[in-house]
Amino acid sequence: MLIIAIGCAIAAAFGYAVANHLQHTSVRKVAGGPELTLPGVRAILHVPSWRWSVLFLVAGAVLHTLSLTMAPLVVVQPIGVLTLVVTAVLAKVRPTAGVLAGMVLTVGGVIAFVGLSSSATASGARPDLVVAQWVPVVAVVLAVVGRRAGARARCVLLAGAGALFFGFTSALVRALAQGQLGGLLPVVAVEIVAAALAGSWLVHQAHAGGSSAVVVATTTILDPVAAILIGVFAYGEASSSFLVTATLPAAAAIAGLVVLARAVPDPGPATGRVQREGPWRVVVAADTYPPDINGASHFAHRLASGLAARGHDVHVLCPSTTSQDRTEVADGVIVHRIGALRTPFHPTFRVCAPWRAARSVSSLLKEIQPDLVHSQAHFVIGRRAVRAATAAAVPVVSTNHFMPENLLGYGPLPRWSHRLFARLAWWDLTRVLMHAAAVTAPTPRAVQLLEENGLNRPATPISCGIDRAHFATAPASAGGDPTILFVGRLDAEKNVHELLRAAAALPADIRVELVGDGSERDRLEELVTRLGITDRVTFRGFVTDDELVRAYQSCTVFCMPGTAELQSLATMEAMAAGRPVVAADAMALPHLVHPGHNGWLYQPGDVAGLTRALGDVMCDSAVREAMGRASAQLIAAHDIQRTLGRFEELYRDVLAATSRPVARDDLVAS
């Protein structure tokens, strides 16, 4: 009988997995936000996939009940964790290392747990249902707290409350099967129905506000835990020492569930939104935005203002330059600045407190009601925007500008920890990107990096784009000393010290201009003094836009020695100005610099190689002019209007895939 009971429990797990998958799809079709409303309940009754989910749910319940009549709770309930494994298969998730590890841990833990529980069971005494009543009490508390929680916590808490009700239902069914209830039968029957309905309602609400992986993982952990604890303490089906013995396999199963829950992809935003052909209301979520000076900030501004110029209603969520919130309109874009604080790691970068960002971002998205959210980062505002948009059934496009190396120079981490930090940073990034309907990066190399570091879904390379006309308008200055120009942050990963050492070995009439500021400026100024080239190097700091254009137009050659460039907007600006480029042969720079055609590449750290490359360009005006013309031609493929057009196409595809109305095709007339 025990073998039959285990077989029924396994079959029930399959039924529950299919039912959960269909329910999640159905709820997301009709839910207009993170809550399933009464109109949504009426609509879901007519969705065929939901009707099929009921059939699978009933089949699973019947099989589960049969297993409970033949075996104790501590044997039957742990098998329910297989539901998440089946969910991973139904979601057609790629068998990555994380998925396989999660399955091995889950299945292995379940097998060991069942083996221990089947040998530790005892014939229980008359069920003490009073002891079991703590479970629905805890479930109610979780439900109340969940209603007031943020998006992701709400999903977990509501799913947890539903799981406790289901575990309580299983325990009551087991007591009913034993026939030891006496005069309590009517009460228990009512409790079974009430707990089942409450659990179903709460799990549906969790499906409306979060991913199926989170819902299934939460229910498959808490449902058996609740039932097993009732079996041990209320039914006497095993001694309390069993809990100690079973800790290791239980921990393995739970660890497997956590790994799988992170690996199973989010099925995407709700599809009950009405699609518009355009113009669209777009929210650009950025953790850096002008007046910040960096590539990600400039791109976020170009994207927002460019979309606004094309007729879209564009809102930007970004950190404020003070500790106060404020809203302003600039370049046709409504900019919502959230109060932020200075960081000790960078002189200009400001960051929002996570709790303040969570509250402000959710409130702003509710007020703005966007068609789509385009996240530019995964730190604070970008992360909160992805979570809030996903919970509100708003499709998300995420563009990655981040590399761990961009942060390593700002903290006190010892060098030996950098590799571990980088791995953790990539893991955190890909975990956030998995919630987006579409992921982009500026170059094919940037996309390759995401794939190499754990992103197990497609990503699209879309250039950050450049306003070519803006940088090509000013005429080149005639005469003057030959000048090497660098534009960017004076931070560790930019390797400006290599340029300065190379300049010291070049003829004395060659000057160097450094536009920008950063944490390495003091060290670089000391290096210039030691090298004896203070009269040849100018630290210009931050400059106006007009001054930047003139700097590009008046320089002889542009140099980019950085090794953490996912695209390098400064290099693109120099190319738009028709300048030859000498750059490090690292990351995405080879996409822009073609050796011998529009400049030269050198191996990072090879100062002698950099010196030769700069000298070759500086000493031959004919080569220099030919390379400048080639730069202008190559950069045409990165024109900002082309970039805006590609993002509009992506938005249209995402909205078409996630914003289909539910009526007609999906609904059956009642």
UniProtKB/TrEMBL annotation:
Gene3D superfamilies: Glycogen Phosphorylase B. The keyword DNA-binding does not apply. Residues 476-631 form the Glycosyl transferase family domain. This is Glycosyltransferase family 4 protein. Pfam families: Glyco_transf_4, Glycos_transf_1. It comes from Amycolatopsis acidiphila. The chain crosses the membrane at residues 70-91, 97-117, 129-150, 156-177, 184-203, 215-235, 242-264. GO terms for molecular function: glycosyltransferase activity. Keywords: Glycosyltransferase, Membrane, Transferase, Transmembrane, Transmembrane helix. The keyword Transferase applies. Residues 293-468 form the Glycosyltransferase subfamily 4-like N-terminal domain. GO terms for biological process: carbohydrate derivative biosynthetic process.
